Amino acid sequence: MNRGSEWRIWDLHFHTPSSYDYQDRSVNNQDIINILSENNVSVVAITDHHIIDIERIQDLQRLGKEKNIVVLPGIEFCSELGGTEAIHFIGIFPETANLNTIWTKIQGKCNLTQEEINSKGQERILCSFKETSSLIIELGGLVTIHAGKKSNSIEGITNKLLVKQEFKQELLSTYHPLLEVGKIEDVESYKSKVFPNIKFSLPIIMCSDNHNIREYATKEKMWIKADMTFEGLKQILFEPEERVRIQTAKPDEKDIYKVIDRIKLDEKGFWQGEIPLNSNLNTIIGGRSTGKSSLLKAIAAKHGSTDVSEKDFIKDHLEGVFIQWKDGGKTDGHEIEYFAQSYMHKIASKPEETNKLVKDIIRSKKEGELLNNCKIESEDISKRIRDSVYILFKDQDDISSIKKDLLEKGNKAGVIEQLKQLKSKASELQKNSAMTGEESTTFEEQTRHVQEKKKLIVNAENDLSILAKLLEDIPFASSFIDKYPFIKLSFARNQNDIEQYFNTLRQKYNEEWNRSIGSLMEATQKEKEKLSSEVQSIENEDIYKKGLRVIEDNKELRDVNNKIKEEEEKLADINKQEQQLQQITNHQTEILQTVIDDHCSFKDKANGVCDALKISHGELGISVATDLHSSEMQDFLQSRLNQRGYERKNYVQELLEEYNKNNKTHISNFLRELLSEDVLLKNWNNPRDVAIDFFTRNWYGLNFILSYQEDDFRQMSEGKQAFVILKLLLDFSDKKCPILIDQPEDSLDNRAIYKELVAYIKEKKKERQIILVSHNSNVVVSADAENIIVANQEGVNNKNENGVKFQYTNGALENTKQRDETSSYILSSQGIREHICDILEGGRIAFEKREQKYGFKR
């Protein structure tokens, strides 16, 4: 019975007595098929060493049909790669391939004639990996290669062959081989290390490599979800993560009483036939009015769904619909969930319906109680903000005082210009001094050096002062308990260990901080002493002393130089105060940012608490979330801020709007304007008190909210809202019964379809059986639907068998057959793949994208 892609046991590396190293020559083909059948193997690839035994393979294929076993032809090669161990690789070909042509070409191009083998011996026959792999692909086959810790593995490539990793990546990306590992741990190693490194994934397989059927065994079963065909095998290249599993139990197994087995239709002239269902994803496709939704409604109505209207015409055709469940039962005692067309959109578009759904879910779940912790956290944040605001305004007073002093000292540019003129005049006077021109030049140079070095000494002293303050500060002051008061691990040992690790690291980094600051202070002190020594050295030189005497003797020059000294001291004082101003400003900026971060953390902390309260599933959550008390904030601002004038009235409204957006820049600007007194306040208010009252208050309350990917449901597009409703209906449900969905894409936007719905369905189908009507190729192809049901309505150019109005056929994505124009009936005229390409818009492109996802071309 064809249910589309199903999980079956495959063995893609298997030897027969045709291999030179087979262990029991008494084995015959019937023995092989019988024992494979006993081990529930559905598909086997015959991969004898250096030979395609056509006669044996054809006989095995004949015998396999009797046991429902598909035999794929193949051959195992030894490559020239590797060191002492040649790397083995395999070519596997379609079950319908012309073996005479394939074997002839392989013999010719790979020198595998009997004469060549007899001459060199089986173990010395080496085939070029690149040339042979290209030939395999050219002949329509797939390449597999030993990998991981398996003997004769690709890991054995010697370093002499270019750079080992680069060469290996080239082979994998060019020939896309299936990677045959010998140990379970190799699977995780490739997934966690190799694939992230090479930026693409390949199928990982594990096979028996059996050389004696009477001792048949595998380290673990390999399951492939596909039709029992070579085309089915190719699907694991397109979906390497989803289509192949190495494990004991059959994947994605569901309770038999939670899976519909098949649907039988038997109403003369209306519909007839049987539709087997897959336990994962079944998609129903077809043109307009072909019976897609009718079939889905019939299944729902047979199970008593009230979402199928009593006036729907399908109600008149239910007597000819028979549902068979996998446990053998009919509809009685079995439950389904049915979401009619536009069902999600209808709920999403009506807030009262959405709220009702959310409340129903909350009532069905247990909530934690952490509101007291939320209150305590808010009080702690308020205290920190209060202390920080006091510091901010103290810094503001210091800033204002320094700016006032700087203003009194005059314009810095004017002082610099004054110095320039004075030095020019002193230079003129110097020319008339008793010093020679060369001496004057030397003296001027010495004076310049002394001034520069003294400036550097002042800078060094300033740095030493700052470093000394940093040395007094402890950057990592908080212990683990202070830092994370609400983290309580379940295991006492874990709690003790994490506290010990944290506190040890804190002590270590504090010590490292002190050593680093001490080292900087020591280096700076040495530099200062060096500069002082250099100044002293210059001042002791004869020409410098002579210059000082000349200056002393020259009254006018002395007066000019005194003025220069006075202005230089003023400039140095200005520079020093500017440095202080910058330091205080930087400190104020840091504290201000701390206040803003702390204030905004009211919402963040509340959300953190809400995370513990909310009911979530993946990225979807029903939570107790924050809600801005905008009316209270508006009352607060209007009672304190002077709003005379149009601009001031808008100020409060704009602040409210930006605050609700959690706009840190705007909130920060409000605090800066309070600091600078640019905000006009009503008579009895002062900026500091307003700042303390505003920023220490938590303006957020707690409210129930629906979110997805951290987006508020109310802010989403209608399409995304509908998708969230679908997730809400399913993710918070404890049901495991089948899900029936009619054209969910009609409620969603295109972006949601591909990026959200497809990924969601791919995961959900592993948990629950899904029957889904769709006209979108992405939902069918990209979601890797296991079973595609094609619907057709009788028409002039679309005939059904026996002339019934509605007819259906089903199969896997990989079911492919070119259209037979001579066929009388549309459904049987071509394969499922071809139906998808004809019926669904973008179907061909969807297949191409899927098959080229890893660079593999069909």
TrEMBL record:
Domain of life: Bacteria
Coiled coil spans: 412-463, 521-587
UniProt KW keywords: Coiled coil
Transmembrane segments: none
GO BP annotations, alphabetical order: DNA synthesis involved in DNA repair; double-strand break repair
UniProt keyword Coiled coil present: yes
PANTHER family named among the record's database cross-references: ATP-DEPENDENT ENDONUCLEASE, OLD FAMILY-RELATED, DNA REPLICATION AND REPAIR PROTEIN RECF
Xref: NCBIfam families: TrlF_fam_ATP (NF045780)
Name of the molecule in the record: DNA repair protein
Lineage: Bacteria, Pseudomonadati, Bacteroidota, Bacteroidia, Bacteroidales
